[in-house]
Design a protein that fits this description.
Helix 7 runs parallel beside helix 9 and helix 11 packs across helix 12. A hairpin with a 6-residue loop joins strand 1 and strand 2. The protein is mainly alpha-helical. The C terminus is likely disordered. A 3-stranded mixed sheet has the order 2-1-3. This is BTB domain-containing protein.
């Protein structure tokens, strides 16, 4: 009797066979971990989404464009606009009549390809050559193209598009009048605290106004009168640079031979 009772207790305490829950390597399956892996979204998935009509521009420049909703909603602005559509809506249209047609076209090209023309050349500060445009931007139109894409990126809350447009602005070879046209647009269409695009404009004119002003003095004066903030920003940087030079000269004074009336070389 006693031996039989011990045998029963040992058999009852033996662990159950868990082989049914093991994989071929003897390791337990992790079904929950497999379920947490999100399905890959393919380009076909984007193309299967509803088509949105975009009415862009006004007058002769107005055009009806189309784009897939799944791509548009990567922009928080479009995500909010598309959220208003119900499943029963037959036509999905969003009006962008106050936006520039070319800028919206660049935005859509960016959505579908990750860039827009002209692209930056690899390992270079140059852009692809557009043979329909002059190599030097005399009017500022090439600068304004990227500036409009930048402000559209701000509206649509797309930092990556803003960053891309800003990088291309610095690759454009322009003239003084072209730079003034660009500066006017920037100070008219960006926020005062947007230093990522305003600061380079002010720095450009603060360091080059002594030479460029001769090429576009009337335009420069009108710019300062039209946008006092521009004049203030440029003047601030000029004075800051002057103070920096004076501080450097005090720390490292240059010796001038006695009796010499030669003036100190002007720092340009």
């Amino acid at each position: 009797m006693g031996g039989d009772e011990v045998a029963v207790e040992i058999e009852a305490a033996a662990p159950e066979d868990d082989n049914d829950n093991d994989n071929d390597n003897g390791l337990p399956f992790q079904e929950d971990a497999m379920e947490d892996v999100p399905a890959r979204v393919t380009f076909i998935d984007y193309l299967k989404s509803p088509v949105i009509n975009l009415l862009v521009g006004q007058g002769d420049e107005q055009a009806l464009l189309t784009a897939h909703q799944a791509l548009l909603v990567t922009s928080p602005w479009f995500a909010e606009a598309c959220a208003r559509f119900s499943d029963e809506v037959s036509e999905r249209r969003i009006d962008l009549i106050d936006e520039d047609l070319d800028a919206v076209g660049c935005f859509l090209e960016f959505l579908y390809t990750g860039d827009y023309f002209p692209r930056k050349l690899p390992r270079s500060r140059e852009l692809e050559r557009d043979l329909s445009l002059p190599s030097v931007d005399e009017t500022g139109d090439q600068l304004l193209k990227h500036a409009r894409v930048y402000t559209l990126g701000e509206t649509l809350n797309l930092p990556s598009l803003k960053s891309l447009a800003s990088s291309k602005i610095h690759c454009v070879n322009s003239t003084a009048k072209g730079e003034i046209a660009y500066a006017r647009y920037v100070y008219a269409h960006t926020q005062k605290d947007d230093q990522s695009i305003r600061a380079p404009v002010a720095n450009f004119w603060a360091t080059r106004s002594h030479t460029l002003r001769a090429e576009a003095e009337d335009e420069f004066r009108m710019m300062c009168l039209e946008f006092p903030q521009f004049g203030y920003d440029v003047l601030t940087r000029v004075l800051d640079e002057k103070l920096k030079r004076e501080k450097t000269e005090k720390l490292h004074p240059t010796s001038t031979p006695s009796g010499s009336s030669r003036k100190r070389i002007r720092n340009i």
